[in-house]
Design goal:
It contains five helices and three strands. The termini are far apart. By secondary structure, the protein is of the alpha+beta class. Strands 1-3-2 form a three-stranded antiparallel sheet, covered by helices on one side. The radius of gyration is 25 Å and the shape is elongated.
Length: about 150
């Protein structure tokens, strides 16, 4: 009888002590732009280097499924690692110089480059105050002092 009680107590302690030291594992999905099998390999490797335990990128949906220990990393760090390899994510844009070094089949239509230029143009050079005076605009951007917009 004592052996059964002792075995039960030891089993109970063993089972529940594991949950005290359990790692906080999270799973998430991140949009990552890319095109092909080479992209897949690079994106997944970059996510792993950013702290993901598992990473799987789908070239059709452009979704990177990751799992990671939230005590060691987070999605921002993982997205920064992916962007550093040349691929734009939903929240982090890859540096242009890194993107330009990607193989030609891996160069995708960039998500933010064109949009951000259009937004900058509209926000100053095409707003109501500047519509009659576009002389102050250079390459779609206002002069540094924004004098023409005042």
């Amino acid at each position: 009888m004592k052996k059964i009680i002792l075995f039960s107590v030891v089993s109970f302690v063993f089972i529940f002590s594991g949950s005290l030291f359990a790692q906080k594992s999270k799973s998430e999905e991140i949009k990552v732009w890319g095109n092909c099998g080479m992209c897949k390999k690079t994106i997944e490797a970059a996510a792993i280097s950013g702290g993901a335990k598992d990473a799987t990128w789908n070239d059709q949906t452009k979704i990177l499924s990751i799992s990671y220990n939230s005590k060691k990393t987070d999605t921002k760090k993982i997205q920064e690692a992916v962007a550093a390899s040349g691929y734009d994510t939903q929240d982090v844009t890859a540096p242009t110089e890194v993107y330009n070094k990607l193989h030609s089949c891996c160069q995708y239509d960039r998500k933010a480059t064109e949009k951000s230029n259009l937004t900058a143009t509209k926000s100053c050079c095409e707003n109501e105050k500047c519509s009659n005076n576009k002389d102050c605009c250079t390459d779609g951007k206002c002069e540094k002092d924004h004098a023409c917009c005042k």
